């Protein structure tokens, strides 16, 4: 058990399709993880990291309704468990299996919930999940920008993708909790801000700043503002669909994961077009705005920067993001973890995965030969310096976390491991029934 501050990294596992579904952009393949996964887990341990954002490739694992190929997941998750690395399991990262099609498919939410349930049943020792990664980004890139998956460019397509992604996420949370009642959901989402470039751009910027909250508003059952309600209703969401989100939220099991890159802030022109603004407010100010809206514990779940010509750009960005985390903590915001994403360099993210060029992007703690980068050295030292200093301030994570360990007995009832946890009493009070085997 642990309640330590969560220093993390992740294995980049995006897998959208491009070119009208003809090409699958599988980042774990491009970055060599299928071949070098043991070495990758060695690297995690060398850094002193105990939390890893990681997930099986859905397109090769979920092979049909009720059909799964767990072979790769069985190997990798067993190894993580033996090493004592706690995965934050990412079950859907920007793509779906070919047989589902894309995020316009109304069957996706129920199919995905069944997949999440099957995963949680097979790996009952796993406690932390990100069921659907960056729902806002996925819906925007797939159905508003036309870059991935369905490659559509309409408001109706965006709303359709968004409601399916968030409903799938909510249903998956409920399904996982039936298997693991003390599961905690760290919802990784892009934290954005849109700056009006002129007085004529104020209105479009206001609309974009409202729209960026839609995925988390729906996920956490928060009523959207009037403009966004009309936007959703005008573009295909029914009243019944909207009320599903209000009535099925699980905020008390959630940590809000906020992702921040130098590209997360935007300038808005009078005609509604946007361009990069660079870092204006920064992570702390934007995360404070998100926290004030949702009032759930926070984790910085993604950041990185290219190692540039001088060689220290990524290290300086790491220091800046960490200073922002400390500022939030000192201001009383319950921030419980930090993540440099990802462990290794990535491939083709300079084109947002729109082009299949095989271009390595020097964003990782290690390069693709698994040689540590200067930012990796800096992160290792940061973890060593701060890991014993920062207690968690999160209500959700002051409850015991079950750190992975090799299975004691295959025959043992999985809930038996929870009998002595404070969280059992908490759940029994909430649910009105006992989880203990001796009752």
TrEMBL record:
Cross-referenced SUPFAM superfamilies: (Trans)glycosidases
Q: Which domain of life is it from?
A: Bacteria
Give the record's keywords alphabetically: Hydrolase
User: Which PANTHER family does the record cross-reference, listed alphabetically?
Assistant: ALPHA-L-IDURONIDASE, BETA-XYLOSIDASE-LIKE PROTEIN-RELATED
| Name of this protein | Family 1 glycosylhydrolase
InterPro entries recorded: GH, Glyco_hydro_1, Glycosyl_Hydrolase_39
GO terms, molecular function? hydrolase activity, hydrolyzing O-glycosyl compounds
Q: Name one Pfam family in it.
A: Glyco_hydro_1
Q: Which GO terms describe its biological process?
A: carbohydrate metabolic process
